[in-house]
Amino acid sequence: TDDDTFSNVFCENSKKLINVHLFALAAKYYSLSNLGVCTPLGDVLGALRGDNQGTTGIKTDEFMNNKKSHEVQVMSELVDNIANYCGIKQVIDIGSGKGYLSSFLSMQYNLKVYGIDSSNTNTNGAHERNRKLKKHWRAYQSRGRANLKSQRLEKANDRPVESEIKCKAINEKPLNNDSSLQSQDQVTIQDLVPSCGFTEIAASESSKQTEVDLVAQTQSDESKLSEEVLGILNVLPADAVEVLSSSQCNCGELCEEERTQRKMASLKAKASKSSESNLYFPLTSCITAETELSDIITDLEDCVMVGLHTCGDLAANTLRIFTAKPEIKAVCSVGCCYHLLSEQFENQEDCPEAAWGFPMCQYLKDKGWCCGRNARMSACLALERVAVGQMLPTESLFYRAVLQVIIEEIYGVTKSDRHVGKTFSKSSSFVDYVRKSLKKLELDDSKLPDNCIMDYYEKYKHRMNELEAFNMLKVVLAPCIEVLILLDRLCYLKEQDNIAWSGLVKLFDPVKSPRCYAVIALKKQSC
């Protein structure tokens, strides 16, 4: 058995690690990539849209860094397909930050998006960023259209000439009634993995698809792209509009009545289901499991709830809100910051009804399962980045470890609510690091001379390699702890009666974006 295979990793008596190689193999064996519980992204997209490939020419790296561009490009395509499959136009972006995902969903995919963030600074930043993005959107769209033509021409060169004159009917229905996602009420994770049940659906649909005339498809795609992108220029709210030329109205000179009329006209356009209904509204609110979305969004309708790297408990609460609110028909959530999760059994607190970040599912609650902060901190590490040579910051970790010894031995402090933060990058030496850190911790550094600080450094310097080895073991174990947290969330969804389908999907390249797994779920049609 697997237990027998890995039984010699630790000494039975001392519980110490005795076989590092076997430890690494065991960690790999229990990682998400090896367990076979994830649904491939391609299968999900295939099941949602059939063979209706929606190529777009806008590239997010025009206005985002490489990491954010990769995340937004992949996730926005998935969210758009979910929204189309469910037949809805409204998206709620939880923990939206500065609105990278929200604004792109609105402008590129013609969706009505409410971005909710607890930070008013982020909300204001989102407004300003959206204003600037809109100002330059014509240029992005123009380049995107050129890219689209280039892609079509490349495909044309690869096809036989005869295929270009064929034009047959397309079955536009993304999923047939017999194998619809919405009818998978009794489907379990075993049915979906590894073939996930989507493979057969996509294959049956693709067999029905036939060749489409290249020229007609190109014209159709370009027209759709142009309409979607240019539609945003006239329907954004007044405070997100940038005047593009002197021939247009000067918004700064409008009277209050005209401003009100303009806002009302914009809101009416927003309410429309037409192709010009794309809007993005950044809002400030702290979201908890008890949040009433209708109090924040007055025109709440059937919608998709999304979260791109929702921090700590916010990821768990996103799923709770999804299951509790009938208007939310689907969810796509990528969590992060596992170390900030609240744990029901960490401090043995007697509050079973509280909305804890972990565990969520009844199975782990019944077992009283607890990770602990150290394990959750380890889950945040990025094994794939280390594997390609992006090594851990050993020196800064060593500084922090020696500082811990100093504050315990000199000051008698074992716990503090204060944090050292990124002091290492602002320090010129170990002595400078210790003094700056003590000030942040509100500890008196005057009784600690420089030579005393350096004595600690010299005392532990020879153990730096030992610390590095320890941290590498934590990195190796990280995926196993992340598995536990993510499967807890998936099991929570599996326990709900109103979910048609739920799964874990690897969305991102883990080197670019280490927190790369999304929890996705669709509700039953009647829910």
From TrEMBL:
Residues 67-344 form the Methyltransferase domain. Coiled coil: none annotated. Gene3D superfamilies: Vaccinia Virus protein VP39. This is MET25 protein.
